[in-house]
Protein: Glyceraldehyde-3-phosphate dehydrogenase
Organism: Halorubrum rutilum
Amino acid sequence: MIRVGVNGYGTIGKRVADAVAAQPDMELVGVTKTSPNYGAEGAVRRGYDLYAAIDDRVDEFEAAGLGVAGTLADLLDAVDVVVDCCPSGVGERNRPTYEAHDVPAIYQGGEDADIADASFNARGSYEAARGAGSLRVVSCNTTGLSRLLAPLDETYGVEKARVTLVRRGGDPSETDRGPINDVVPDPTTVPSHHGPDVNEILPDVDVDTAALRAPVTAMHTHSVNVTLDEEPSTEAVRDLLGGESRVFLIPEGAGIDGAGALKDYAADVGRPRGDLWENCVWEESISVEGRDLYLFQNVHQEADVVPENVDAIRALATDASRAESVARTDESLGVGLDSLLSDGGAARSPLAADD
Amino acid sequence: MIRVGVNGYGTIGKRVADAVAAQPDMELVGVTKTSPNYGAEGAVRRGYDLYAAIDDRVDEFEAAGLGVAGTLADLLDAVDVVVDCCPSGVGERNRPTYEAHDVPAIYQGGEDADIADASFNARGSYEAARGAGSLRVVSCNTTGLSRLLAPLDETYGVEKARVTLVRRGGDPSETDRGPINDVVPDPTTVPSHHGPDVNEILPDVDVDTAALRAPVTAMHTHSVNVTLDEEPSTEAVRDLLGGESRVFLIPEGAGIDGAGALKDYAADVGRPRGDLWENCVWEESISVEGRDLYLFQNVHQEADVVPENVDAIRALATDASRAESVARTDESLGVGLDSLLSDGGAARSPLAADD
């Protein structure tokens, strides 16, 4: 059993904790919070041992009626791997502490790439992460792009990818963030940092990204163009992407017209927290014109990195192969959404057409 | 076992179906959909028998790969009670069909009050609904107001209630609704219809309502003033409302600052679909100035009527008392949220202060 601690039980941390707790080969030792707020209460309700992220706040937790098992230092003494899910930049401040406790650490994509020995995405760089003493799981957007570009590059070759990222302004509980009533270039410079971040995973793929922010909270939306080396049919690209376990093809005619309906569907199929771990690609948007592929995909910023963190733990702490780890993660969480309506009407399936 | 059918498996219907399926004394016979969309897929995935709401669409379901058990008429022949969860106005069109099948029906609050023998809210009018052949569960906003005003009127007497309803524009999946970037009077006439609808439940409570719509999807927000006959302390009102099983007092200091955080908390404590079945009252907003009580409450428009529908089924089909039905509903669903942080710091509890 790999003993895992999660430092920072916020949007990502609470989901990583649930995912770790669901793994047959992992033990969630505990999670940290900086203050006894509703998130800390949620951890206690789930039966997770709570640790104070800041030493002198133990009394504050006790006073609020949420007992803690110790401090961050105590947690680090009890684990084989720590997953840092703190806000961007705090991971960098935490690094010396992890190193002092000699605990291999996994950081999130809000940190600079040089915080860890390697950046990580299970589809794009699992084997390349072998032997690292620390890993950085790339951001939700970079994860979504890596999952898409890796199979396209392997199968057809990517000459150049150009992507516009229409990013959500904040998470659903982040009341104070903007923008409101505007779509703002962010950064205004083009290309944005997302393309270079993809190159931390796929160094040989030529990709430029332009990023905007919109007044929405549910998901990011990517408008993707990839100029391929070959000229596959639209159908072939649909089948290729449909075969990826962490890509969900949103079926035509299902009535899913945006992020709101997508998350409604996620709840309908029983996803905890309405989470969508997969890239969500609108099937009918997939179009090939000559060597140019176009599509829209949505990325759930709260969720898509969660299975990646689980795989990163195995890459760091075990000899499991990529295939073994991904299969185990997907099986335990239920990753690999496949709509019953995908072949509705038997429009595309030769097998069904023979029925 | 009460055999129940749900006609209309949308925002409310899917939740009522789950709630009925969770009752030890009820059997969910099946649900209807008008077309084989993602919602229909969700019903099939949950193992619910699907019925075509429109007779000549059976083939359409079959072609989409979602087999149906029959049509609405077949469902009505197999149930003791039907819960109509169709869009507003469709219930009225369905009424002759239910009557032709001699099936007692429960309608939703979007229908006119005269569609049924009585309007229903478990807290306000359970016993008054006895002997009815059909019931109408009042709307989410009226439900929220009835739950609040019933205990206040019983305990202190209500001289007059004045409420501003800041309503959500649409549900999360309703992409096409407004308003965007505006708060609009709706209706512009004051008082709105909500006050008279409360009087369908509490005929003797004097209440005026003014309604707005805002560009949000998560919850309605009520700004409430109630002039009471007596002058209770703020503390006494907090305790009164805190003792109501379908009122959740949002604790001070928990970091819950709006509907986004509220729904995040609901997911943290394991609520299916992030649902909040209770009125959510900001504890620190509760203030008494002389005989004037003020508070803010949020109402989850997708969820608060769900336990009410379950109780309405028992009121229509059994001899269970209000207390028996409400206790059974709350126990089976887990209604009655009570934060571990409610008495954090022992600031208010005399018992805790003695510790």
Remarks:
- Chain B is about 35% helix and 25% strand.
- The radius of gyration of chain B is 21 Å.
- Chain B touches chain A through 49 residues (CB under 8 Å).
- Confidence is low (pLDDT under 50) at residues 344-355 of chain B.
